[in-house]
Amino acid sequence: MPIPFIQTRALEYTYTAEDGQAISALRGIDLTVGRGEFVALIGPNGSGKSTLARHFNALLLPTAGEVWVDGLLTSDPRHVQAVRQRVGMVFQNPDNQIVAGTVEEDVAFGPENLGVPAAEIRRRVDEALEVVGMTAYRHHPPHMLSGGQKQRVAIAGALATRPDCIVFDEPTSMLDAEGRRQVLQTVQRLNAERGLTVILITQNMDEAALARRVLVMDGGRIVRDGPPEEVLEAPEVEGLGLGRPFAAEVARRLRERGIPLPPGLLTVEALAAALRCTFR
User: Fold this and answer.
1) Residue 243: half-sphere exposure toward Cβ, Cα within 13 Å
2) CA–CA separation, 266 vs 178, rounded Å?
3) In 89-224, where does DSSP find H-type helix?
4) CA distances from 136 to 33, 106, 129, 130 (A)
């Protein structure tokens, strides 16, 4: 069992809409995310995914209940900076996160604001750019990069603050297929090779299938929690309008045609292996 890193206890969050109505966005959420986990957070629009994620680095604070990050209570003002150093965030539009004229200046922005010494900032920038494969672009203006490259720069900027966890809030939703591939490969490598805790908010079931654990939200509550092979083909999840991973849908149609395939085939690679075994 992974060491607990993020914990929520009876978490509630209510906000006031423009018409003055109180909206309950999160309702009694009890959750533990272990250090080094790769968790996908899925659910229909308005289900509370992004609202929950913003509690993990104290961008939002609970109306009721508690959020703990690495043993720090996020609602304690003394802990806010430490919490945000531990949990970084990457949002869906990389253009909204770029603040400097060159790639390396942008990556350096976070540690500069934390008061990190100049020599250490240089080391962090070099390392972060290498990790995301953007060293060759360090002197480029960010606005000249592709969408996928910009998003990798945003990831490098988060890495330069040396977080234990990064929350990715639909980071590929505005990217083309190649940009999406680049970003997802980077996310997987950070988790597998560096032990970074990853929370991936996504509407894409193929992306959710890459995680080791999937949380499903609906109406401000977590309604399903488990490994992707159990969660992503569950009827109640499909009933939320989330669909299935592409490979899982192909496997379902093949079973309907009499081809005996096992459940839990969520990736093209897994489906291809199962078909080879079936027709050997």
Assistant:
1) 13
2) 20
3) 103-113, 118-131, 147-159, 177-194, 205-208
4) 35, 15, 9, 9
Task: Report yes or no on whether pTM surpasses 0.70.
Answer: yes
Please state, as a whole number, how many other Cβ atoms lie within 10 Å of the Cβ of residue 178: 11
Inter-helix orientation angle 103-113/147-159, to 10° = 30
Residue intervals of the chain classified under CATH 3.40.50.300 are: 4-244
CA distance 182 to 266: 20
Residue with tokens 């085939």: 265
Nearest to 245 by CA among 234, 256, 236, 255: 234
Tell me if the domain spanning 4-244 has CATH number 3.40.50.300.
Answer: yes
Report the interhelical angle of 118-131 vs 177-194 (nearest 10°).
Answer: 120
**CA gap 200, 113 in Å, rounded:** 26
Single-letter amino acid code for the residue at 11: L
Predicted local confidence at residue 17, as pLDDT: 83
Give the CA dihedral 154, 160, 165, 170, nearest 10 degrees.
Answer: 0
pLDDT in tens, 222-250: 999 999 999 998 888 878 888 888 898 89
Q: Which residues contact 193 (CB under 8 A, 6 or more apart)?
A: none
pLDDT band for position 54 (cuts 50, 70, 90):
very high
Torsion sign, CA atoms 31, 40, 273, 258: positive
User: pLDDT by residue (tens digit) across 194-229?
Assistant: 899 999 999 999 999 999 999 999 999 999 999 999
> What is the spatial distance between Cα 184 and Cα 182, in angstroms, rounded to a whole number?
6
Helix (H) or strand (E) holding 247, with range, is helix 246-256
* Token output for 13: 């969050």
